Amino acid sequence: MSTILVNNIDTLVTMNSTREILNDAWLVAENGVIVSSGTGTPPENNYSETHDASGCVVTPGFINTHHHLFQTNTRAKFVDSELFEWLVGLYPIWAELKDNQFLRGAVVGMSELLRSGCTTTTDHHYLFPQDASPELIDITIEAAKQTGIRFHATRGSMSRSKKDGGLPPDSVVQDHDTILKDSQRLLEKYHDTAPGAMTRIALAPCSPFSVTPELMRDTAELAREHGALLHTHLGETVDEDNYCMDIYQCRPVDLLEQTGWLANDVWLAHGIHFTDDEVAKLGKAGVAVSHCPTSNMRLGSGICRVRDLRTAGSPVSLGVDGSASNDSSHMLSELRQALLLHRVLGGAKAMSVMEVLEMATLDGAKTLNRDDIGSIEPGKQCDLAVWDLTAPEFEKVHDPVAALLLCRSVDAREVFVGGKKICNN
Ligand SMILES: [Zn+2]
Predict the structure, then answer these.
(1) What is the 3-class SS of the chain, one letter each residue?
(2) Do 215 and 89 share a structural domain?
(3) Domain end point (choices 367, 397, 416)
(4) Structural domain containing residue 399
(5) CB–CB of 133/97 below 8 Å?
């Protein structure tokens, strides 16, 4: 049995039901699962490893619920474009990417996530160029194994190309049957539903303007047969609303409803352009939303109605998106952006540090339907981020937890995934 002790923690942010914050704290994990925590002197034991966290804030590892790791290959490109123009410019560049670039992009993005305190990430991989391997999801799963991050791969898809009225060119789409066959293969090969799982699969048609309603419907049926979640982009831009009215004569949320996607096994990226009725409908159904503030600001898409959605009943988590619309994978920086953006919108009391932390941890876990991550308490996976507050940028801070978001976004000194220390800057 492996028993580890993290000792002398200056500030332990538990995110438990009372949002307890402990000072001079310790925590013990056995075989990757937290068994106890407390303050003062830790229990005597013959620990396999002891880690000293003097001067550090320890938080649950953050959970990133929206990303496209392959886009790490095209950062800072089309810098002044909105979404549709940006996509149409990038599709042909992405169509030329080779297998080793997909692997490299995933490894770089995951490493950046780990360095920035993220211990669980999703990846929405929807691009399958004709000249690349058809098994690009397997490549990203290999990257997760190499880097040690907990990984929810989403098998994305695009089936509606320009000739069928969609946005992407023929060179990056696949047909309906190929998509479903590969989705089934991935679910059977990798989808691990056990507690503590390092790899899960979700299915993720890309967006209303790149797939058919039939694919949305059949994908939902397949995912539900395997107890897997569903993910897509929705409500990102006004252009998308207009597209849906033109092509389907309905709004994006109507399309969701018509295809069987208005359910609590669905999470949406962005979720900006919703009416009051749509917010109520999504909340009632328990549809989760991944808020991606940097990408939304970068592309000028708008601002997610975080407070309204949470009040209505939708879990709202955080996603770095990108990396071509962020243009980074820095998770702590995304927390900072969320905090500041909503204060622009509603004043200094419109968003608190604790609410952003909830989105990055507890709501992330809820979004991914996991009860084994997202907080530091007995029975949870030992997924931690250790933040060294002895650095000059934190000199004289009064509130060390708020300082994480208010001061410059730094890298974590180390993270633990399932009790394994995997990153040390
Ligand atoms: Zn996206």
Answers:
(1) CCEEEEEEEEEEECCCCCCCEEEEEEEEEECCEEEEEEECCCCCCCCCEEEECCCEEEEECEEECCCCHHHHHCCCCCCCCCHHHHHHHHHHHHCCCCHHHHHHHHHHHHHHHHHCCEEEEEEEECCCCCCCCCCHHHHHHHHHHHHCCEEEEEEEECCCCHHHCCCCCHHHCCCHHHHHHHHHHHHHHHCCCCCCCCEEEEEEECCCCCCCHHHHHHHHHHHHHCCCCEEEEECCCHHHHHHHHHHHCCCHHHHHHHCCCCCCCEEEEECCCCCHHHHHHHHHHCCEEEECHHHHHHCCCCCCCHHHHHHHCCCEEECCCCCCCCCCCCHHHHHHHHHHHHHHHHCCCCCCHHHHHHHHCHHHHHHCCCCCCCCCCCCCECCEEEEECCCHHHCCCCCHHHHHHHCCCCCCCEEEECCEEEEEC
(2) yes
(3) 367
(4) 3-60+375-424
(5) no
Residues of the chain with pLDDT under 50: none
pLDDT tens figures, 387-403? 999 999 999 999 999 99
Q: Which two tokens stand for residue 36?
A: 């106890």
Question: How many domains, the chain?
Answer: 2
Which CATH number do you get for residue 109?
A: 3.20.20.140
Residue list, CB under 5 A from ion ligand 1: 269, 321
Residue 198 token pair: 């390092």
pTM: 0.98
Residue 165 sits in the same domain as residue 191: yes
Taking the centre of ligand 1 as the mean of its atom positions, its distance from the CA of residue 311, in whole angstroms, is 24
Token digits of residue 105: 């992009």
Token output for 182:
């590969």
Contact between 187 and 109 (Cβ < 8 Å): no
Ligand 1 centre distance from Cα of residue 87 (Å) = 11
217 CA → ligand 1 middle, Å: 20
CA of 411 to the centre of ligand 1 (A): 24
pLDDT score for 322: 81
pLDDT digits (tens, 9 = 90+) for 327-358: 999 999 999 999 999 999 999 999 999 999 99
